[in-house]
Write a structure and sequence with these properties.
The complex is a heterotrimer of chains A (274), B (344) and C (345). By secondary structure, chain B is of the alpha/beta class. Chain B has a domain of 153 residues. Chain B is built from 13 helices and eight strands. Chain C folds into two domains: 205 residues, no CATH class; 129 residues, no CATH class. Classes of the chains: A alpha/beta (274), B alpha/beta (344), C alpha+beta (345).
């Protein structure tokens, strides 16, 4: 990494996948560093992407740490920088600095059943954990992935889910009724209650819109999950990524450094300012 | 002289009768000499209300802020808010009424005449006291200001310690009120209106430019001037990084395409741009409460900008803002008898 | 190292340092006290209470260019790092509260990830403190937050006014350098001078100040009463400006934005500017969701950051009791009263 923490490295967009369309479209960007550049990361960490003239945006790294050749970012169009990113083409060069933040404690979860609960673009931060877990399936018990989107056309990583279904239990849902939909119809927290996974020897990892996370956690607690068995990753506005600018500060923590990954037991001790 | 007991007893009646949700007035502050705004909700707390030359704030600001607060509440108390208003403050309320920002029935105006006095300027007072701290400041009938300090009471002529806006004020009593305290005093005999701005106008263009460059250069863009101004109520301001009217329907493009007219950087150009934009948006609306100038931590004479435009409005269009909520606004009206032929 | 400087030779000392470094000293201009650059022939006198703007700007300026960028269309961007080429700077008349704030700023900017811009400036600046003989403001409360009118923390030199002279104590290596460099002007302090300085300090401690409960009690009270309805009550008059934090010697939050100077080719600067937790856009997400959506939550953040969160992380309060945020609040919001009322201490 650069000695100057604010100075990004330059990296090339090697691939762009259109995940979903519409006003809040999601695209997945594959970023490649020049020979000898780049950095290693852990599951759950983020990186600051730069578009010069527009600004920076902190995005979680969606590719698994084992993938060294590139990094993947799934980005929903939302503000100034993300909208401009969506206008880029393969071959364009952007800035990137990182990795930032802590990680999911996968090594502590060995031998346990993993239950992932994602909604919308919130699948991206937990995707590297899913990928790493299935690649090392022998280290874990059963792996279940709940994922919900507004409609079937809003489901991201569609092609990957077919592959994933061979290695893990996949529970897909869409919010509203659709002809020909074979999965669950309803919100993610409801699908979770419907399938009612056992808390025994399990760890639940959730990410999605704040309101979904709230109800998922409530429902996990109803199912008997202890606070230490529930993990999530939180998002706040960030500018520096290195624990100084104060934007992401929640209680004593700077989320960019101490987070974004928290167990519910830890998160409960912080003010609900995220 | 206005007796504070009269204001307190009216406040008590309003609260006990449940006619208002709060009485917005002034109380002593732990922060220093100046009174501070207070929302009295319990009738037994009316005793905390004070009235003297330290009641500088223009409380009309809170009609705007409370509106935003109420919008965010699930079950807002929709009873009116009682507000203590000096002459200048009442003109601010009139502008808010004129611009349909608040409705007349949403507010109970306890108008207070400054009679022959006004409010203190703490910087002038600090100069006059040469470092001694003032514990209280009260105007008497003759416009003199009695200031108590640890080493005794000192009396100053109004011109030495009253705010410039008070010295230049010609309508020191409420233009609108439900109950009025004190007498209308028309002969105040301090300074001529626009005295301060006329002295600036007498400078050459280069001198004026240098004068303002020097002042704007110090600006730290804390936006206290904007935040304290009752007329600066927009949800979307050119200096903010974002518009505060983002809804689930707001598209990414709308957010992304927002033009940054003014950078956050405190460069002389950006600072000047900010102050000029603010001043232009106050033309025909500023009622000269001079709160912007009072709250500026780095002492930029912002009142001069606004009174300059106020003077233009008066001299070019015979317009004085805040006199009547039914009057058409300066910028959006046209008169057949406009004194300027270029407009007719 | 302790020395004595005759008051009438202060300007001479300043001028001597001015030959090698940029010197700032408090000056009264446009109705306020501020650190102003000292011209060669300026007579320097210490007659100030405290400056309106704190000393933090010398190490953390309100605007800092992080780097410049340039991009020809269809080509990769080029970045030009712009680390400040900070010139040696000596700041006179720094009050001990501002000195202590520097210790806090060091924790933020140099712990964990080192901030090279801050570091470059910090390395080049010498803070010459001036002990307070009496509280410069009626809102001073340094004694309640672990400081004192003569605290040496964060200062390189501490000057104490005695009868007709200054007791000048070098605290750091940087401080010793400027004191030793003026051997002709500064006499070695005698035992009696040291005693006189100690007495001046003891006398200064006796002046009444605003009072706040102990660090532990305030922090515990703020933590316990996080959900107190008092936050909303106390913040109801808050107008949401940034005077309190911009004038704070230890507030360090910032924003980073791109400022474009040309579209084709794309050229511009990535710029860091002070930012402010009291502004609503500070925490607003692009979705419009705002974790601290009202003035109550934002007042709680400012006060808790100073008196609770920083204590949890560093075991010292971030607030050094200068009282600027109280004196300059347009509506009298008073951190001492707020912390006292909410924490119940």
């Amino acid at each position: 990494m650069n000695a100057n923490v604010y100075l990004p490295a330059l990296a090339r967009i090697a691939g762009i996948e259109e995940e979903t369309r519409g006003a809040r479209a999601i695209k997945t960007f594959r970023i490649e560093f020049p020979e000898g550049g780049g950095f290693d990361h852990e599951c759950g960490q983020c990186a600051m992407l730069s578009l010069f003239g527009k600004g920076e945006v902190m995005i979680s790294i969606a590719s698994a740490p084992a993938v060294k050749e590139y990094k993947q970012f799934s980005i929903m169009k939302s503000g100034r920088v993300t909208t401009a990113l969506h206008d880029l083409d393969v071959g364009d060069v952007i800035g990137i600095r990182g990795p930032y933040g802590n990680q999911f404690p996968l090594d502590q979860w060995k031998g346990r059943n993993l239950i992932f609960v994602g909604g919308g673009v919130g699948l991206a931060p937990i995707w590297p954990v899913i990928q790493t877990a299935v690649a090392n399936a022998d280290d874990f018990g059963s792996i279940t992935v709940f994922y919900g989107a507004r409609s079937s056309s809003d489901i991201m990583y569609k092609a990957d889910f077919e592959e994933l279904a061979r290695k893990a239990i996949v529970q897909l849902s869409v919010d509203g009724a659709e002809d020909g939909w074979k999965g669950y119809t309803g919100f993610v927290p409801a699908n979770l209650m419907d399938k009612a996974p056992s808390p025994d020897n399990a760890i639940a990892i959730t990410c999605g819109p704040p309101i979904m996370i709230k109800f998922v956690i409530q429902n996990l607690q109803k199912l008997g999950f202890a606070d230490e068995q529930i993990y999530t990753t939180i998002e706040n506005k960030m500018k520096c990524g290195v624990g100084k600018c104060g934007r992401c500060n929640v209680g004593k923590d700077y989320v960019c450094v101490k987070g974004p990954v928290y167990s519910w037991a830890e998160l409960k001790t912080l003010p609900q300012e995220y | 002289m206005v007796a504070i007991e009269d204001i307190r007893s009216r406040a008590k009646e309003l609260l006990e009768g449940g006619m208002v949700r709060a009485v917005l007035g002034f109380r002593r502050s732990s922060a220093g000499l100046l009174a501070e705004p207070t929302f009295v909700v319990a009738s037994e707390d009316v005793a905390s209300l004070v009235w003297d030359a330290t009641c500088v704030h223009n409380l009309a600001l809170y009609l705007v802020n409370e509106k935003k607060r109420q919008k965010a509440e699930r079950t807002p108390d929709t009873r009116p808010l009682a507000i203590i208003a000096k002459g200048c403050d009442s003109r601010a309320i009139n502008v808010l009424l004129q611009e349909n920002h608040v409705a007349r029935e949403e507010v109970v105006i306890l108008g207070v005449s400054c009679e022959g006095g006004g409010v203190v300027d703490t910087r002038k007072l600090a100069d006059a006291l040469r470092g001694k701290e003032a514990a209280s400041a009260v105007c008497d009938d003759t416009g003199k200001v009695k200031v108590a300090t640890a080493s005794g009471e000192v009396t100053f002529p109004a011109a030495d310690v009253l705010a410039d806006r008070c010295l230049e004020c010609t309508i020191a009593y409420p233009s609108v009120s439900d109950t009025m305290f004190g007498e209308k005093v028309d002969e105040r005999g301090f300074t001529a209106r626009f005295a301060a701005v006329k002295s600036i106008a007498a400078m050459s263009e280069q001198e004026r430019s240098a004068f303002w460059d020097g002042h704007f250069e110090r600006c730290i863009r804390c936006y206290a001037c904007r935040a304290v101004c009752p007329m600066c109520y927009c949800d979307e301001c050119v200096v903010d990084s974002t518009s505060f009217i983002v809804s689930p329907m707001t598209t990414a493009e709308e957010k992304a395409n927002r033009i940054r007219w003014i950078q956050r950087s405190t460069t002389p150009a950006d600072n000047a741009m900010y102050h000029m934009v603010r001043a232009m948006h106050l033309a025909g609306r500023c009622i000269d409460c001079a709160e912007c100038e009072r709250v500026c931590p780095v002492n930029i004479p912002l009142r001069l900008l606004n009174t300059s435009l106020e003077q233009e409005a008066l001299e070019m269009f015979e317009y004085t803002p805040g006199m009547d909520p039914a009057q058409p606004s300066l910028i959006s009206s046209f008169r057949d008898d406009d004194p300027n032929d270029f407009i007719r | 190292m302790e020395t004595i400087l005759k008051k009438e030779r202060l300007s001479e000392w300043v001028a001597q340092i001015g030959a090698r470094a940029t010197v700032f000293a408090p000056a009264f201009a446009d109705g306020i006290w501020n650190f102003c650059a000292v011209a060669a022939d300026t007579k320097v006198e210490f007659d100030h209470g405290n400056t309106v703007r704190p000393a933090k700007g010398f190490v953390f300026p309100q605007r800092e260019v992080l780097y410049r960028f340039r991009q020809e269309s269809g080509k990769a961007p080029e970045l030009m790092e712009t680390l400040p080429a900070a010139a040696p700077t000596v700041v006179f008349g720094v009050r001990p509260c501002d000195g202590r704030a520097m210790v806090r700023n060091d924790k933020v900017f140099t712990c964990g990830f080192n901030d090279p811009y801050y570091q470059a400036r910090r390395d080049q600046v010498v803070f010459v403190g001036l002990a307070c003989s009496e509280p410069p403001s009626q809102n001073c409360f340094c004694l309640s937050v672990g400081g004192s009118p003569h605290s040496e923390d964060g200062l390189d030199v501490l000057m104490t006014e005695l009868d007709g002279r200054y007791h000048v104590k070098a605290i750091t290596a940087k401080g010793r350098e400027i004191v030793e460099g003026a051997a002709a002007l500064l006499d070695k302090a005698q035992a009696a001078d040291g005693k006189a300085a100690a007495k001046a300090h003891a006398d200064a401690d006796k002046h009444p100040q605003r009072a706040l409960a102990t660090m532990e009690k305030v922090a515990a009270g703020l933590k316990e009463h996080f959900d107190s309805p008092k936050w909303d009550e106390l913040a109801r008059a808050c107008i949401g400006c940034g005077a309190c934090t911009y004038l704070c010697p230890s507030c360090h939050c910032f924003d980073i934005n791109d400022e474009i100077t040309s579209n084709v080719p794309l050229t511009g600067e990535r710029v860091r500017t002070w930012d402010n937790c009291q502004f609503p856009d500070f925490t607003m997400h692009s979705s419009g969701h705002n974790p601290r959506h009202d003035t109550g939550a934002r007042l709680r953040q400012r006060v808790s950051h100073k008196l609770l969160y920083f204590v949890e992380n560093h075991n010292i309060q971030q607030c050094t009791g200068c009282g600027r945020c109280i004196s300059h609040c347009p509506v009298g919001i008073d951190i001492v009263r707020v912390a006292t009322e909410v924490s119940g201490q």
